[in-house]
């Protein structure tokens, strides 16, 4: 192959081809305009491979020095924007390799010894994804910290807890927020687990069957910070389960974000009026002057759709593929890139926005007073007086019916009226009919009693420190 042959990818294969690739096919098969994003990983992978080739005596120390010099130049050019990406050279790998050969000659052509783009691309995507995971983990921690901070100021803030979107029982707003902290904590745990399986080295698998050169794969893995080496060459070049798994993590995380976003939208609406968002997170309407819309929360909710869509895309991409590498796999990148970008931006903006919410304590409490949220407490009170729970439930249903008819809260029914429902009711009943009495009573591990919530906040603070 002459030194300038790689300039034209249509000639890169061999003399076997009798006509150049059509322009349409070239554009259809090229990936450089999106996979150039992998350039850093591609160069890191090539340098680690070259160092190992030299240490194993497969290339000469002079070749390694030339490769290192050329890659330093290429790195500088890409960073400055001077690097010229060519569609003719199809992808990030061929673009960088061709430029290297242009810069340093034969050493550039020796770099691909014992390697194929199949194990190269699998390595690049894993390296890139691992580093992205390492930037997402702190963002998940920030999200949790923001929620814990708001929770800390709102242990004694009471709002109605809902089931079926109907007022159920009063809960501490801090407790409500800490539910999301639990979700994001599990997301972080999941991501850490995904990282283990992302962080394994495919290089050395070559095209599919391994290579006849005496490579030291463990050495390359160590240089690149991989936890281990893929143990089967066919699997190494073909599967993308690490990408699917990451997307599953991302989808679950976005579903959690979306649920929180949905609550923010509801709480912000005039009908709830539980919170307010800072103006910088809202937009106005071009026609209705009174409007302040929670666009950020709505978009976060909406963007969960594209992330879940990417998961479906990746899974579908793999399902019909026979071993080993197929060009289908080139389609793994755009969904993966967009997933990372979307999750990163969403976590950042949501953490910021949540950290700055204004909590309207009185409105929350007023809402908790509607809907007979302490009815369960009255039933529990009767159980403590000796009634079987099912009977107590029935007694309270009558009391609630009466309260509804009179348009008052349970705590506003006169003692004599309450005693009409059951003789065992005494004046201490009013302690359990208040919102605070109801909260304090739920002093079980994981419950909403302020004492429990404070312990949880302390646990989270320690965990996130
Ligand atoms: N651009 C390709 C991809 O993303 C690189 C690997 C190409 N390998 C091949 N045998 N055509 O998967």
From TrEMBL:
One of its GO terms (cellular component) is cytosol. HAMAP family: Arg_succ_lyase. Belongs to the lyase 1 family. Argininosuccinate lyase subfamily. GO terms for biological process: L-arginine biosynthetic process via ornithine. It is found in: Cytoplasm. It holds the Pfam family ASL_C2. Keywords: Amino-acid biosynthesis, Arginine biosynthesis, Cytoplasm, Lyase. The gene is argH. It comes from the Bacteria. The keyword Amino-acid biosynthesis applies. Its main location: cytoplasm. InterPro entries: Arg_succ_lyase_C, Argininosuccinate_lyase, Fumarase/histidase_N, Fumarate_lyase_CS, Fumarate_lyase_fam, Fumarate_lyase_N, L-Aspartase-like. This is Argininosuccinate lyase. It comes from Piscinibacter gummiphilus. It catalyses: 2-(N(omega)-L-arginino)succinate = fumarate + L-arginine. One of its GO terms (molecular function) is argininosuccinate lyase activity. It is an enzyme of class 4 (lyase). Pathway: Amino-acid biosynthesis; L-arginine biosynthesis; L-arginine from L-ornithine and carbamoyl phosphate: step 3/3.
């Amino acid at each position: 192959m002459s030194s300038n042959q790689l300039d034209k990818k249509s000639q890169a294969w061999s003399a076997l081809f009798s006509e150049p690739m059509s322009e349409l096919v070239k554009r259809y098969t090229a990936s450089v305009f999106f996979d150039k994003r992998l350039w850093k990983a591609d160069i890191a992978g090539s340098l680690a491979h070259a160092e190992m080739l030299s240490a194993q005596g497969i290339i000469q120390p002079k070749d390694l020095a030339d490769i290192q010099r050329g890659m330093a130049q290429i790195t500088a050019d890409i960073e400055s924007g001077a690097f010229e990406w060519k569609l003719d050279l199809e992808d990030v790998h061929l673009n960088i390799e061709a430029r290297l050969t242009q810069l340093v000659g034969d050493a550039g052509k020796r770099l691909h010894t014992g390697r194929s783009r199949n194990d190269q691309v699998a390595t690049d995507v894993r390296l890139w994804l691992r580093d992205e995971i390492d930037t997402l983990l702190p963002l998940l921690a920030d999200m949790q910290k923001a929620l814990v901070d708001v929770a800390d100021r709102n242990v004694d803030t009471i709002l109605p807890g809902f089931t079926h979107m109907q007022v159920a029982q009063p809960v501490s707003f801090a407790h409500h927020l800490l539910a999301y902290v639990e979700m994001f904590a599990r997301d972080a745990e999941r991501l850490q687990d995904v990282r283990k399986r992302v962080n394994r080295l495919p290089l050395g698998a070559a095209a599919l069957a391994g290579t006849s050169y005496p490579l030291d794969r463990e050495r390359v893995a160590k240089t690149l910070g991989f936890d281990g080496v893929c143990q089967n060459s066919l699997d190494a070049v073909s599967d993308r389960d690490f990408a699917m798994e990451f997307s599953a993590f991302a989808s679950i995380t976005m579903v959690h974000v979306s649920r929180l976003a949905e609550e923010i939208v509801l709480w912000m609406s005039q009908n709830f009026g539980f919170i307010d968002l800072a103006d910088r997170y809202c937009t106005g309407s071009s026609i209705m002057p009174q409007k302040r819309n929670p666009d950020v929360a709505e978009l976060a909710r909406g963007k969960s759709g594209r992330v879940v869509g990417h998961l479906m895309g990746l899974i579908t991409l793999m399902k019909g593929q026979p071993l080993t590498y197929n060009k289908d796999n080139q389609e793994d990148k755009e969904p993966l890139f967009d997933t990372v970008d979307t999750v990163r931006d969403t976590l950042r903006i949501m953490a910021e926005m949540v950290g700055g919410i204004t909590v309207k304590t009185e409105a929350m409490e007023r809402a908790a007073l509607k809907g007979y949220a302490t009815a369960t407490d009255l039933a529990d009170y009767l159980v403590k007086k000796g009634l079987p729970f099912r009977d107590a439930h029935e007694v309270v249903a009558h009391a609630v019916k009466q309260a509804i008819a009179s348009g008052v809260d349970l705590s506003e029914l006169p003692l004599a009226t309450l005693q009409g429902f059951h003789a065992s009711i005494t004046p201490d009943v009013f302690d359990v009919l208040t919102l605070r009495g109801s909260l304090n009573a739920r002093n079980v591990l994981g419950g909403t009693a302020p004492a429990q919530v404070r312990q949880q906040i302390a646990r989270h603070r320690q965990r996130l420190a």
